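Input record, target 12 of the design panel.
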């Protein structure tokens, strides 16, 4: 029974629904203003009936065609109706739907589909129409197109005509019907009783710094992302200051006012249902269906042309929300017919988000709750138009329209895409207006422009939006100190081309219209040419070579124009400083008519015959611009692309060769050196380089990474090969110089004294020096002119060991060592919160508010660092009575104030930290803006980070502040140079290397507290440093900017009582032992970590507290560790060091280049005391071999002149004085001649005859002598002296006998071995075989005075070449040949019958005649008065004959010496001592 009742009710409801639907359809027909003839209706119905079989027949045979690139709009195939008499009326379109289209809808529902030519069948490669007769030509069609998104290949391609057609309407699509009988985009669930509806987006929507994947569609004219406040107070003020006590919603408000659904008149043209519409189109980038492509293209071009800076934007997702004919809440009578119609379009690529506000109709401005009239909606507080980020952060109110009476002008203002009533915004991070505003006037009006940065050299096209422009009025753009005229584009846009600016960083940018003053203002960032965004790329490093064969360049053609057939020109420019004014000069056209393909190859040989007048330009830039920009853009201006600075050797090398010769690099280098020597010395004020890479990385106040050699972003290091990282001084010193420190793979400092790739100080900083418009102070250009340019001509284009390169390295740009380097002091704060002072004191202070972290108390060097601490969020047990660091503010003496703020949780998706410079947000995500310089301060983020989670602030005084964020937990560290010792105060204490005076109060006294007693620290020390908006003596004034009117008192609460207990087991309840164990497990020995986990139960916070603590301790230990360095050990010129270490224990060896001789110590060692060992042989240097030879010769001469000659003079003087003394005593005294070869020669001359005292023979040849090298015995007495017995000794004469001569040079007659004919060495062994030099033990010499036995058979004549000839000679000749003298071989030859010929063939192998080893031969010689040829016995007979009995005659002064023949022996009075 129940089943029957339910079935009956179901049938009844179904029937009722059909009746209502029929009535609705009938009412729509009745609303038509034109009646339709009954016959026409019948005929039309007949036509419909006749069409069905035809369509079904076509379904059986679909028409296929290949896919084409461009598909024309689909049209339904026409049919031939039956003739109608006298009536030919075209079917009336009803809201964009014809009766024929209705038939298609019916056929689609029934399955009778028509196969057309425009539907893509996927991989088959054909298009088949699924439009089902949809009317695409009607832009206001109320019926939604087929909802079949497609991502297949091929698909629909929109034409330019179609794009222009769909962009010709102000409003985007919204539908209240679909082809399936639904309500299309209409949100019927939104009405007066339920004003909002939740919508899941399923993609990321960035908005005002936050990111969302959902939204709530509200009837009240906005999209919201959180709950609105419980009640509203008019006028509306956002953000809600009482947040989080009151809800502060995040919303996008196109018309934030209480609304209700209105009504329309039957006579209205647009009969779509009043209410709220919502449409979401996702994944448009890959969509290929027609509606998806049209939505993407229309939105993309509307935004690109409407918002400056969106030239490359491609929407990925689009949201269209429409409020059609909505009235104000609280109205009566006919107020429902007083309606507004407006539309919001959101487009995003999940990084950038743009909003389009389309105001079609505005008839009321305020609701009755806001004081509006109940019938007209006027007179109260108008609607709020703008954006609110929520969570008590930021808001943007669209002035002057929002909540003002001029809000009605929104329909006639904006002029986005040329439409009055269209207003565009960029809303992802900041709210940037994209449409003009003519109803506002003030002295400082916000200017929207893009790009916001450009190359200092100029040529950047800046699109400007702000005021509404008039083509008849001149627009002037003011860049810093330069003015240029603007080019009118539309009412909403003007273009200015940035000129050449001699400046860097943020400069003023202002515009004026007509004769008005410059009241529209903004800030423009000027990029230095070395750090600017690279627009022209060099594929290889050939451009840096002296004479490359080719240079390949490339660029993005879309940076010039989207027209690929456009012609461009490539030109060359150069820079020089020959006067006080910088000169950037044009050089030549590289290519005049090139198609914009994006690549080109330069052949330097094409320019070898050029003869430029300005060929003294040594570096410059390549420039690319359009040759005829008006042909492609309709404007006479062209963007300009610049390369990075490059040397110009590839272009000018042949001209320089003709001018300076083949050694032109040397000439260029010497010219630069000559000029550089006249300039001031600049290295005195530079900070010293750290010894190691670790120290350089953690010296945050003085050094930042060098972008030309950065281990994280640019490891190529073109000018510093073998280096892994370089740092440069963050700001210029007083004289404008820059320090550079490069480190090798081992982390040690690289010096130019060791290698050409070492660190080089620079006369000019890359940032330049104020004023920037003077020579030597221009950013980048002066740096290249004075420091980079000479490196090429002196070293890169010459040998490393060349004189010029070594002069450049050792004299003009030498590295500074690290001997005197002093690491900075470090203090930090982390956790909730914990402090470590400069002197290492550790304590915990949970203050709530803004406090002084560190400040200088010196009048000459001022700085302040402040911190803001807010309460930690709640945990599962309720409030957490602890605080954490959320913001830091800092300022130097007169510098820009820098703030670093922790962003809210859901706003950290892109940027983790906000950075404000003088209250204005700055960002670092662009490569050219990673390093930003302000007045007296430089701010940068590491190159490997994109989310701004680490920010470093560097002041001119050397103070550095580092802020790091991880997972919402922030730490701050302050780095101070030693100039601030005993000059600091605040929560980081007084830096004095003494922890006793750390906790100094503002009045200068020292707080007496127990560091383990958190309560004493809190009340007796920490709160004393709390800041206020007024100036407190000793504390100062808060530096934080006051967004949304929040003063210091908003954050400060001196009555806040935190937890003062240190350990979790002491402050956690006993039933939470697990949390205590967990704290021990996570933290170990770190009480800070245990405390934080016990308070917050957040393991992330505990982890990062421990991480920050360990990092800070490690940095402090590294900086406090004394690095011992021996400093620079200069490499000898024309030499090299085999290693470059300068730490204790390092042993450095040297070597010289080829052709040089090393002098001094060849190795040095670094001692433990930081000094190189004292050289033993002098400092090391390399001397040319020629100079070395000369030096040796000069030294020898000097020794002779300085030592030997004076000694000889002394000897002669001594002998002379001695002789004079002896002659006074004995007038007959004669000096005894010393035993020497000279005295021997004198004796021999006397023996030869009184008339013969010459050393030469009759032919003039030097008489030969023979050196003795045998042991001899002598008993010859000296005249007037007692008889002395001399022991036997070995002859030890000089190896060189200067008295012997053979030819032109004296022959060296050294000691020789004497052999007999059998080859026995008699100079080595005695008769019994004992060596002469080592006599046998026990052997005794003969009695002194006893002569040798003349029959000693052990002696043999020394072997000589003439021994073989003597056998064939007569005995008489042999005897004559064997006449000997102890010294001269020809001593007796004057009276012999045969003269000695020194060049005769009969000579022995020693170069002379054999010399008697003893006087035995003279016992067998006939008396001197007997003629030759007597009965003397020859030597051969004496040696080889039978033994002869002779009487041994002792050797005396009268016997044993040769006497001149035919003369008596000399008398004792004239006898000379003879040396033997």
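The sequence produced for target 12 reads:
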């Amino acid at each position: 029974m129940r089943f029957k009742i339910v079935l009956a009710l179901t049938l009844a409801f179904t029937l009722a629904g059909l009746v209502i639907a029929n009535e609705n359809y009938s009412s729509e027909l009745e609303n038509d203003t034109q009646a339709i003839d009954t016959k026409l209706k019948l005929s039309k119905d007949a036509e419909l009936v006749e069409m069905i079989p035809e369509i079904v027949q076509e379904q059986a045979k679909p028409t296929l065609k290949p896919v084409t690139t461009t598909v024309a709009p689909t049209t339904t195939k026409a049919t031939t109706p039956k003739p109608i008499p006298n009536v030919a009326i075209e079917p009336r379109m009803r809201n964009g739907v014809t009766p024929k289209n209705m038939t298609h809808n019916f056929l689609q529902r029934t399955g009778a589909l028509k196969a057309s030519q425009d539907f893509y069948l996927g991989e088959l490669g054909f298009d088949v129409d699924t439009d089902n007769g949809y009317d695409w030509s009607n832009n206001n069609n109320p019926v939604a197109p087929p909802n079949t998104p497609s991502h297949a290949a091929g698909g629909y391609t929109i034409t330019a005509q179609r794009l222009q057609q769909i962009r010709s309407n102000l409003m985007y699509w919204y539908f209240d019907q679909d082809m399936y009988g639904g309500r299309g985009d209409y949100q019927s669930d939104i009405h007066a009783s339920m004003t909002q509806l939740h919508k899941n987006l399923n993609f990321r929507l960035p908005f005002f710094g936050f990111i969302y994947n959902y939204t709530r569609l509200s009837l009240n004219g906005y999209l919201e992302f959180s709950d609105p406040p419980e009640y509203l107070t008019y006028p509306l003020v956002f953000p809600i200051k009482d947040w989080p006590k009151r809800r502060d919603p995040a919303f996008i408000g196109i018309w934030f006012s209480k609304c209700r659904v209105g009504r329309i008149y039957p006579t209205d043209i647009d009969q779509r249902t009043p209410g709220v519409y919502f449409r979401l189109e996702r994944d448009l980038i890959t969509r290929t269906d027609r509606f998806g492509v049209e939505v993407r293209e229309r939105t993309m071009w509307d935004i690109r042309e409407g918002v400056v800076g969106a030239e490359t934007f491609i929407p990925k997702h689009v949201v269209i929300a429409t409020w059609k004919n909505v009235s104000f809440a609280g109205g009566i009578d006919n107020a429902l017919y007083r309606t507004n119609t407006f539309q919001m379009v959101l487009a995003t690529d999940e990084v950038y988000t743009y909003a389009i506000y389309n105001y079609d109709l505005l008839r009321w401005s305020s609701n009755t709750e806001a004081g509006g009239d109940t019938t007209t909606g006027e007179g109260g507080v108008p609607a709020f138009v703008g954006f609110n980020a929520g969570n008590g952060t930021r808001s943007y109110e669209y002035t002057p329209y929002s909540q003002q009476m001029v809000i009605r002008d929104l329909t006639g203002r904006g002029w986005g895409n040329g439409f009055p009533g269209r207003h565009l915004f960029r809303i992802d991070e900041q709210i940037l207006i994209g449409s003009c505003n003519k109803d506002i006037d003030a002295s400082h009006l916000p200017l929207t422009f893009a790009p916001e940065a450009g190359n200092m050299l100029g040529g950047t096209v800046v699109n400007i939006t702000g005021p509404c422009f008039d083509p008849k009025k001149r627009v002037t753009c003011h860049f810093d100190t330069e003015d240029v005229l603007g080019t009118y584009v539309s009412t909403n846009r003007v273009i200015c081309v940035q000129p050449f600016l001699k400046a860097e960083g943020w400069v003023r940018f202002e515009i004026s219209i007509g004769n008005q003053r410059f009241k529209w203002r903004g800030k423009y960032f000027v990029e230095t040419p070395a750090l600017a965004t690279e627009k022209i790329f060099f594929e290889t490093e050939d451009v840096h070579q002296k004479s490359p064969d080719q240079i390949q360049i490339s660029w993005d053609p879309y940076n010039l124009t989207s027209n690929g057939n456009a012609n461009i020109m490539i030109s060359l420019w150069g820079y020089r400083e020959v006067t006080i004014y910088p000169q950037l000069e044009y050089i030549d056209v590289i290519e005049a008519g090139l198609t914009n393909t994006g690549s080109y190859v330069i052949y330097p040989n094409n320019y070898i015959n050029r003869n430029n007048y300005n060929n003294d330009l040594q570096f410059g830039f390549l420039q690319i611009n359009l040759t005829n920009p008006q042909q492609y853009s309709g404007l006479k201006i062209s963007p300009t692309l610049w390369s990075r600075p490059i040397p110009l050797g590839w272009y000018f090398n042949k001209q320089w060769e003709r001018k300076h010769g083949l050694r032109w690099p040397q000439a260029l280098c010497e010219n630069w050196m000559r000029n550089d020597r006249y300039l001031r010395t600049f290295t005195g004020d530079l900070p010293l380089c750290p010894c190691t890479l670790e120290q350089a990385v953690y010296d945050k106040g003085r050094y930042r990474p060098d972008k030309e050699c950065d281990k994280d972003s640019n490891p190529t290091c073109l000018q510093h090969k073998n280096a892994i990282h370089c740092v440069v001084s963050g700001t210029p010193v007083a004289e404008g110089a820059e320090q550079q420190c490069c480190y090798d793979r081992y982390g040690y400092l690289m010096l130019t004294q060791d290698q050409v790739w070492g660190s080089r100080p620079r006369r000019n900083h890359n940032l330049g020096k104020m004023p920037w418009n003077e020579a030597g102070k221009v950013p980048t250009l002066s740096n290249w002119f004075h420091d980079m340019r000479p490196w090429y001509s002196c070293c890169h284009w010459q040998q490393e060991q060349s004189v010029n390169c070594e002069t450049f390295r050792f004299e003009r740009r030498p590295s500074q060592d690290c001997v005197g380097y002093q690491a900075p002091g470090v203090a930090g704060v982390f956790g909730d919160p914990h402090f470590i002072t400069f002197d290492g004191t550790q304590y915990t202070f949970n203050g709530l508010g803004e406090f002084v972290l560190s400040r200088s108390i010196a009048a000459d060097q001022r700085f302040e660092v402040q911190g803001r601490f807010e309460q930690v969020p709640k945990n599962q047990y309720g409030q957490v009575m602890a605080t954490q660091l959320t913001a830091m503010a800092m300022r130097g003496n007169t510098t820009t104030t820098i703030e670093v703020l922790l962003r809210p949780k859901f706003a950290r998706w892109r940027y983790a930290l906000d950075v404000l410079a003088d209250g204005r947000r700055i960002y670092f995500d662009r490569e050219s803006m990673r390093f930003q310089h302000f007045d007296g301060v430089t701010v940068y983020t590491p190159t490997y980070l994109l989310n701004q989670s680490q920010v470093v602030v560097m002041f001119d005084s050397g103070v550095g502040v580092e802020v790091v964020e991880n997972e919402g937990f922030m730490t701050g560290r302050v780095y101070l140079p030693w100039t601030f010792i005993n000059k600091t105060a605040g929560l980081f204490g007084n830096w004095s290397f003494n922890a006793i005076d750390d906790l100094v109060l503002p009045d200068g006294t020292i707080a007496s507290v127990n560091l383990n007693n958190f309560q004493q620290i809190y009340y007796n020390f920490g709160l004393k440093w709390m800041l206020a908006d007024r100036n407190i003596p000793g504390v100062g004034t808060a530096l934080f900017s006051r967004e949304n009117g929040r003063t210091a008192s908003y954050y400060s609460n001196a009555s806040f009582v935190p937890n003062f207990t240190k350990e979790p087991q002491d402050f956690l309840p006993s039933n939470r032992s697990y949390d205590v164990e967990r704290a021990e497990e996570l933290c170990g020995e770190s009480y800070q970590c245990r405390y934080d986990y016990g308070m917050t139960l957040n393991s992330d916070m505990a982890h990062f507290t421990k991480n920050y603590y360990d990092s800070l301790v490690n940095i402090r230990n590294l900086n406090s560790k004394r690095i011992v360095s021996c400093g620079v050990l200069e490499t000898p010129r024309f030499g090299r060091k085999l290693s470059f270490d300068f730490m204790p224990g390092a042993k450095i060896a040297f070597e010289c280049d080829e052709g040089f001789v090393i002098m001094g110590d060849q190795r040095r060692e670094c001692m433990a005391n930081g000094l190189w060992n004292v050289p033993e042989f002098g400092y090391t240097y390399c001397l040319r071999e020629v100079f070395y030879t000369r030096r040796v010769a000069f030294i020898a001469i000097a020794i002779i002149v300085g030592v030997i000659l004076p000694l000889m003079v002394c000897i002669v003087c001594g002998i002379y004085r001695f002789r004079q003394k002896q002659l006074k005593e004995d007038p007959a005294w004669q000096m005894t001649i010393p035993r020497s070869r000279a005295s021997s020669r004198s004796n021999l001359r006397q023996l030869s005859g009184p008339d013969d005292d010459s050393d030469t023979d009759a032919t003039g040849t030097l008489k030969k002598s023979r050196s003795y090298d045998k042991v001899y015995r002598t008993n010859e007495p000296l005249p007037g002296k007692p008889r002395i017995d001399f022991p036997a000794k070995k002859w030890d004469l000089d190896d060189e006998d200067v008295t012997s001569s053979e030819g032109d040079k004296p022959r060296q007659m050294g000691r020789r071995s004497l052999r007999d004919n059998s080859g026995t060495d008699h100079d080595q062994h005695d008769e019994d075989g004992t060596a002469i030099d080592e006599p046998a033990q026990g052997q005794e010499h003969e009695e002194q005075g006893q002569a040798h036995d003349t029959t000693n058979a052990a002696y043999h004549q020394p072997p000589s070449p003439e021994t073989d000839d003597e056998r064939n000679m007569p005995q008489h000749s042999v005897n004559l040949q064997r006449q000997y003298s102890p010294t001269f071989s020809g001593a007796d030859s004057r009276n012999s019958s045969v003269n000695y010929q020194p060049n005769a063939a009969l000579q022995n192998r020693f170069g002379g005649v054999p010399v008697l080893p003893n006087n035995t031969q003279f016992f067998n010689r006939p008396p001197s008065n007997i003629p030759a040829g007597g009965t003397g016995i020859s030597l051969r007979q004496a040696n080889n004959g039978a033994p002869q009995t002779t009487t041994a005659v002792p050797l005396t002064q009268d016997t044993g010496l040769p006497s001149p023949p035919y003369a008596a022996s000399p008398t004792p009075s004239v006898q000379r001592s003879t040396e033997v």
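Residues 1185-1225 form the longest helix (41 residues).
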